C-alpha cells in the first residue's frame, strides 16, 4: 500500500505550484486512470509518484515505510520498484528489443543495474519469458528503431517488469496509437493488475480510463478534484475537471 500526504510540487524557483496538496492512497491490483485537461499536472503527478521528481513538500509511505518525509526524493531502493513509462519510451534504437529489456532504460548501465540489485543484466530467460507473455517473442531480435509505437510500449512494460517494478506510472501510453494497438497496450497493463497484483497509474483519455480502469482521478490545475471507483464520470464530474 502506498500513501501520499500533502504532496506539493513547485517550479520556477517555487513561484509556480504544479501540484497542490495531493493526498491519496492506492495499492496492489489497482489500475487508476488520471484524466484532466492539458496542463492540469498529470505528467508531473506521475513522475512524482514514480519517484522521478523531487517533492517540495509531502510524505510518501510504502507499506508503512517512510520513503519521503516533508519533501525531497526517494532512495534508489524505492525508485527501483517504480517504473515511469513515457509517451515515447526511451530505447537504444540500434539494439534489439531483447537487449533493450536486459540493459534497461537509456542512461542506466548494466553495471548500475547490478550494483543496485535490480536484476542481472544477462537474465536472458527472464526477458524472453516476458516478451513471449506479451506477444513480442517474434520481435525479440528486431531492432527497437523498427518497432511500432505499440510494440515499443509493450517492450517498455517488459523492461520495467524484468527490472523489478511493482508500480508502473504510464504517461499517455496510447497517444498516437491506432485503436487496436492502444487496446493491446491497455489490456497488457490491466493484466498486470489482475494477474500479478501490480499497481498501474496511467494518464489516459477519458474513454479509455472509463473502459479499463478500476478507479479514476480527475485533476484540475494541479488539484485532485475527483477520486471515483467502479463507475463512469457524470456530466457534473466532467465539468468539475474541465472535460465537459
From TrEMBL:
Keyword Repeat: no
Keywords assigned: ATP-binding, Cell membrane, Membrane, Nucleotide-binding, Translocase, Transport
Pfam family, one: ABC_tran
Gene3D superfamilies: P-loop containing nucleotide triphosphate hydrolases (3.40.50.300)
Keyword ATP-binding (UniProt): yes
UniProt-listed InterPro entries: AAA+_ATPase, ABC_transporter-like_ATP-bd, ABC_transporter-like_CS, MetN_ABC_transporter-like, P-loop_NTPase
PROSITE patterns: ABC_TRANSPORTER_1 (PS00211), ABC_TRANSPORTER_2 (PS50893)
GO molecular function, one term: ATP hydrolysis activity
Location of the ABC transporter domain: 2-244
Top-level taxon of origin: Bacteria
Name of the molecule in the record: ATP-binding cassette domain-containing protein
